[in-house]
Amino acid sequence: MKRLTQQLKRKRIWIALALLAFIYFNNCSWLSDPPQGSPFLLAHRGMSQTFPMEGIMNDTCTAERIYEPEHPYLENTIASMDAAFKEGAAVVEFDVQPTLDGRFVVFHDWTLDCRTNGSGVTREHTVSEMQALDIGYGYTADGGKTHPFRGKGIGMMPTLDEVLSTFPDHEFLIHMKSDDPAEGLLLAQYLRKLPSSRLQQLTVYGGDNPVASAKASIPELRAMSKSTMIRFVLTYAAIGWTGYVPDSLRHSQVHIPEKIAPWLWGWPNRFMTRMTDADVRVIMVGGDGTEFSSGFDTPEDVRQRIPAAYTGGIWTNRIDRIAPLFPKEAP
Fold it and tell me: Does 147 participate in catalysis according to the annotation?
């Protein structure tokens, strides 16, 4: 009996060692060939005025704390998107807000008071009212002594229609700023009218409820929210070591904070190969996932914080600074 117990114990040890060896070699990045291709750049809000990230809250008026302007572009405008694409962005992110007349304007804030010469809740205004505003009114780099964009942003707030028609062949990440499921349904109603080829160029993200309602209305839509991110990480942590990517994670988008990325099975080579095979678009963002819109905004950020073999998307607030590090695709 004692001998049999010892044999079973040794068998369990060998099984455990074999399993550990399988996990190691199946997820050892350095034993895997680097995936083919180069990273692509995602320009957050196009070319925009940036600001210190310290102490940012949901209700912080960032227009009142911008750095001294280095370029003439304002976020979420046609001009800023055009500049970002010309710099080398593969994808441009922009924000949408529903209007009182059932359309969408491209604008960041829940209210108008911070950036514009208007006031009140954004969605309680019509498109014509919104487009009559000066969207550069509130920007200041010196505590309100000067306003370098005041008077220059009149009529520059585009509609979703105008953005997509101006850039018919470009890819976008569309951000819904509320957690209202009705907003997701309204956006899905608009997107359903687009050809499938155009829909494939668009990704939607935002609050759990609007994203879920948009995804339920358009199952083939690439979409992402906090809940889908958590589900992705937990699911991949549980079974990703096998190399298998379940259908529930396929054809999706995931934003991976740089401090979490090294803990993912097979990071970076095997992980990126698996995600490519599963049609999962990976965007690498800065920090640990708790920071607001943290990205890679200097050449040093890219060189020091992104693996050389990484081939996914890179989130940046300064496309003008990091695009020169990457070759532009031929037209």
Answer: no
